[in-house]
């Protein structure tokens, strides 16, 4: 009986930690058009614990065409395509917006992967979900769909635009470590000036009139 007590205690701790997290929806189902290069599905991770905790995230069980590359965005931080693990810290009461992405290289197909979060203190998965994608071949695309929103030109040099007919209020630009460096009112067919930015990778967030995130897109800024 004494030998069972440490095991029972560990199982109690693992169950208690798992109960502090809510990840949903799962699975995340996303349909996209054949001409879309950067596709994603949206989920949230809610932490109901009482102390800050550091989690390791992992992209596993990838099934996709060989031309596809997976990546993930947690909050406003997007990790490089092909990076399948990393650390994130979450505070009590936090809700993290999650976007599971694939770069498709314009190859139509189906793909999926699982995203797990592990408490490294006890080396135990405390939350997990899956992202599933299906290419749909059709003649029209809903312009209000997050996956249908595009940024052009990309790469850009002095300005970029966002596809028309988006229900949005503002456009935000962040550097790759998540610091906001520019904000613009949304204008259909408008040009957003980035001539003063250094060359590199940026994240463009489109926000709707209720202050909710519509989509996050990557933007490459080239120097003249």
Give an overview in words:
A hairpin with a 6-residue loop joins strand 11 (151-152) and strand 12 (159-162). This protein folds into 2 domains: 4-136, Sandwich (Immunoglobulin-like), CATH 2.60.40.10; 149-221, Immunoglobulin-like (Sandwich), CATH 2.60.40. The chain is built from 1 helix and 17 strands. The protein has 224 residues and is mainly beta. The N and C termini lie far apart (73 Å). The longest helix is centred in the first third of the chain and has 15 residues, at 4-18.
- What is the name of the CATH architecture of the largest domain? Sandwich
Q: Name the helicity range.
A: under 10%
**General form:** globular
Q: Would you identify the regions where 5 or more consecutive residues have pLDDT less than 50?
A: 4-14, 139-144
Q: Could you give a short account of the major beta sheet?
A: 5 strands, antiparallel
Structural class: mainly beta
Distance N to C terminus: 73 Å
Tally of helical segments: 1
The name CATH uses for the topology of the largest domain is Immunoglobulin-like
List key phrases describing it.
five-stranded mixed β-sheet, 51% strand, Immunoglobulin-like, 224 residues, mainly beta, five-stranded antiparallel β-sheet
Helix-strand layout with pairing:
Blueprint: H1 4-18, E1 21-24, E2 28-33, E3 38-47, E4 53-63, E5 69-74, E6 77-78, E7 85-90, E8 95-103, E9 110-119, E10 124-136, E11 151-152, E12 159-162, E13 170-175, E14 180-185, E15 192-193, E16 200-207, E17 213-221
Parallel strand pairs: 2-10
Antiparallel strand pairs: 1-3, 3-8, 4-7, 4-9, 5-6, 5-8, 9-10, 11-12, 12-15, 13-14, 13-16, 16-17
